[in-house]
Amino acid sequence: MKIVIFAPHPDDELFGCGGSLLKWLDEGNDIHLIYLTDNRALIDWGIKENQLIEECAQKYKDLTKDEIAKIALEEAINVSKSIGLPSSNIYLFKIHDQDLENNIELAVDLLREIAKGADRFVIPSDNNNHNDHQAAHTIAKKTAIELQLKDTEFYVYALYNVLKVPRDHQKKIKIADYRDQLYELMKGYKTQLCLKDTRMGLETFKRRRSERFGVFKYNEMNKFENF
Fold first, then answer.
1. Quick one: angle between helices 179-186 and 196-204, nearest 10?
2. Does domain 2-220 have CATH number 3.30.470.20?
């Protein structure tokens, strides 16, 4: 099965569906991982939202946004290779962090060849209060419509908002066997771990037993709050 996973930012693939990703890979599926943006706004956002852990962020605060983006994407490559993905299945779109909504057509162009033949899209939820996550959802849908991916299933994960899905569209995947691996993988995102919420999120991997998705078909698009 060809599974295409959408990560609006480096680390979203772990927080959104990391255990399931590892399980699907162990099951022999063909996993393709797309990092849509470059995390260049990390420090500015952290300062604005009072999220920076100062002693951790000190070495990044004097860097340019281009330099931060370069480090963040190198971390993403290293983490995805540690997951076990081949380089050919790792994609860096390098769209500026916090600006994905203004580059939807560019992202669709970059995605078109990758998406062909996909059996499953794994995407952030609709009605998302994070603009990059919302844009990622829109990009996935727009590409599916353009390519007429009518047999593709959509696994929707929630970050920064609540997943509101009818019971008959819910899928819970047990991932307790992978939580230690997830915890170690997340340590590879050193820049992200300079944010307070990310540091707290790291500790949740130790307790994670399952991941929940909304599962939808192509013809159900735009009929549900999160899809």
1. 160
2. no
pLDDT in tens, 33-53: 999 999 999 999 999 999 999
Distance CA 104, CA 99 (A): 9
3-state secondary structure of 75: helix
Beta-carbon count within 10 A of 40 CB = 25
Output the pTM of the full model.
0.97
Domain spans in the chain, listed from the N-terminal domain onward: 2-220
Give exposure, 162-194, as e/b (b: 16+ Cβ within 10 Å).
eeebeeebeeeeebeebbebbbebbebbebbbb
Edge-to-edge, what's the strand order for the sheet holding 210-217? 90-95, 30-37, 2-7, 120-124, 153-157, 210-217, 170-174
**CB contact at 8 A, 139 and 6:** yes
pLDDT tens string 69-113: 999 999 999 999 999 999 999 999 999 999 999 999 999 999 999
Q: Is residue 144 classed as helix, strand or coil in its secondary structure?
A: helix
